[in-house]
Amino acid sequence: MQPSTRRRQNSALEAATFMPAASAGTEAALSKPRFQLDLWLCFTVQNWLLDVGRPVAMLWLPADWFPRNRPGAADYLHLLQVVASPLLLLTRSSWTPPLAAVRLCAIAVVMGTSLHLVAESVTLRLLLIGYQLHLSVRDNPVMKELKPSSVVGAAPNTAVKTYKSSLSCRYLPLFLVLFLFFSGCFSHGKQEAKMPAAAWMLLVPTAAYYWYLITEGQTFILFIFTFFAMTATVMRQRRRGMVPDADGLFMLYSFSAALFLVAVWVACLWSDGVLRKKHPGLIYVPQPRAVCTLHLQPEAHA
After folding, report:
1. pLDDT for 146
2. Is 49 exposed, middle or buried (0-12, 13-18, 19+ CB in 10 A)?
3. Phi then psi for 187, rounded to 5 degrees?
4. CB 131 within 8 A of CB 301
5. Helices 197-215 & 220-239, crossing angle to 10 degrees?
6. Transmembrane segments in this chain: where (predicted)?
7. Are 286 and 275 spatial neighbours (Cβ–Cβ below 8 Å)?
8. Half-sphere exposure of residue 264, counting CA atoms within 13 Å on the CB side?
9. 3-state percent helix, strand, coil for the chain, nearest multiple of 5
């Protein structure tokens, strides 16, 4: 009886010793943040279809399907994109925005979308009559034919200011939500943060979309300020013993890759005199559509 009793006591002690260790391991495994592949896959595919697909929809869908006095296919895609992308990130964010911030973002989206739709509608109609995107408003042959000539002098400043204001109002909520989402992507320093293979594969299309967002959307200032804010957040969190998790690393790497693509894009077009004349300011980021009309459609400006 004594040997069997000792065996039972030893097994009970082993079980009592093993259970806390197992539960601690399970708790650590459960608390360790994982890469949200479904979120970033939906975010990337959605933006490519709704944002990058707008010019494709304008070119391939017949114009007779959408009357001139009503929104077109690109306008509907634009409305879906500016609403769906921030909401998708907010549903997975660990930070709940206050009601006042939501209302301000909604006002900014409505104002920016309205101005941008007007600017896009005017640009589309100008393209139909021979407007060249790679030239400035003042240098376009279509604008030179306007009467009186004083309209040509006032048009460039008004058009540029309206277009830049619409882009800022349109994309400001998106970059704000991206930064707020990133601020919640941190874990304890003892937990190793690694990106899975699926995240590395998704990094290329995500960085390519950010490149499109910077170049075609002319959002370099918003993008670089968001990236600086993310970098400052990482430095502040490291002092508290926190490091970016897999989602945070994915955002940092995708932003860095996008800036690299923009740098290569600008370097390749740095000595282009025509595009330089259209972007005379300190920040020189040519639009892909302007490059296409300049180099890929020579008959448009022959």
Report:
1. 59
2. middle
3. -135, 175
4. no
5. 140
6. 171-189, 250-270
7. yes
8. 8
9. 75, 0, 25
**Coil/strand/helix, residue 186:** strand
Domain limits, the chain: 33-300
Residue 250 CA to residue 105 CA, distance in Å, equals 25
DSSP per-residue codes, 85-128: HHHHHHHH-SSPPPHHHHHHHHHHHHHHHHHHHHHHHHHHHHHH
Question: Which is more confident, 84 or 251?
Answer: 251
pTM for the predicted model, two decimal places = 0.75
Angle formed by the axes of helices 99-128 and 73-92, to 10°?
Answer: 160
**Burial of 169 from C-beta contacts in 10 A (0-12 / 13-18 / 19+):** buried
Cβ neighbourhood burial of 222 (10 Å; 0-12, 13-18, 19+): buried
Q: Please state the φ and ψ torsions of residue 192, each to the nearest 5 degrees.
A: -75, 125
What kind and span of H or E run contains 230? helix 220-239
Dihedral angle of Cα 71, 75, 76, 79, to the nearest 10 degrees: -130
Strand 186-188 and strand 242-244: the pairing is antiparallel
- What is the per-residue pLDDT across 1-54, written as a single tens digit (0 to 9) for each? 444 444 444 444 444 444 444 444 444 444 556 789 999 999 999 999 988 887
Contact 203, 247 (CB under 8 A): no
d(CA 217, CA 279) in angstroms, rounded, equals: 14
Distance CA 275, CA 143 (A): 18
Whether residue 194 has pLDDT greater than 70: yes
Q: How far apart, in whole angstroms, are the C-alpha atoms of residue 248 and residue 233?
A: 11
* Interatomic CA distance for residues 134 and 276, integer angstroms: 10
* Alpha carbons within 13 A on the beta-carbon side of 111: 14
Distance CA 115, CA 284 (A): 23
